Structures are given as C-alpha cells and as structure tokens.
Task: structure prediction
Amino acid sequence: MEKDTLYIKELVLGSHDAFRCLFMNYFPKVKYFISHLTKSEIIAEELAQDVFMRVWESREQLGVVESFNSYVYRMAKNMALNYLRRKYVEESYLEEYEGETELTIEGELYAREIKLLEQLTVSRMPRKRKAIYEMSRREGLTNDEIATRMGISKKTVENHLNLALKEIRKTLFLFTSFFM
Result:
C-alpha cells in the first residue's frame, strides 16, 4: 500500500507511469469484481475501463483519498449497480410493451422513428462492425457462425457487437431524452 500512496501522489501531478502502474495492478481485480456483479465478462471489461477513465479524469482529487483500494472498488460497485439498474429499467420497459397487441398510431410512429434511428446509426458504423451487426441481427447468425464466415475470432465478433449496441443505445438515449 505504500507504493499505492506514492503512485497516487504522482498521479495527482499527472504522471502517466503512475497511472499505468495502478491500472496494471488494479484493473484485473476490478474487472473480476464487476464480472461477478454483472455476470458478463464483456460488460465487466467495459465498466472496468470506465472506472479507470474516471480515475484519470478525477486524478487531482485523489490526494484526499485515504485508501485507493477502497476508492476504486466503491467506484466499481457504483458503476456496476448503475449498469444493472439501467438494464432492469430497460428490460421492464420492453416487457411492458411486448404484452400490448394494439399499437396506437402514435406508438407506431415512435416505433418507426426508433427503427429509422437504428438503421441510420448502423449505416454510419465502420464497415466491419456494420457487417457483423447485420449478420447477427438481420440474418440471425450466431457469433461463432459470424466469426467463421469472416475469418476472425469469436471475441472480435463480440467486441464489435458490443460496440455497435453501445452506439445504438447512445443514439436512442439521446433521442428519447431530447424528445420525450
């Protein structure tokens, strides 16, 4: 922990080396911790990266932190819980509207707008990501089938799909928060 204190002091001053050392030491632990909460390696990887991005962005305030270990785990826990809350709300919303058989005209227009936004977002994606997304969603191929067809690893397919879905969610979030 004495090393952590030294790294924190250097990090407050903007040292990339100190950040790298803390990242290398804590990232695997943080990712493992988050993966147990989210039950997803991919989400855990993304959230753990977000944790360290926030550590870097708020490095000037780290001088008052007594225990970096506690600080980073509290941040990881909060990010994971926020993710799970958003996921729960999203799933609840989808379940609520899946049961409805009659769509109002307004609801139908809204659904078309959402579909159009998705298509627009996909059309602006890098070629490879767009192809992977379309094979997955439009052709119904599994990640293994896509990987075989494209001659890439399954992990690469998963990463591209996650990035595609993240872009789509961001676009839809901005749309719904602006127009709702």
In short: The chain has a mean pLDDT of 85.
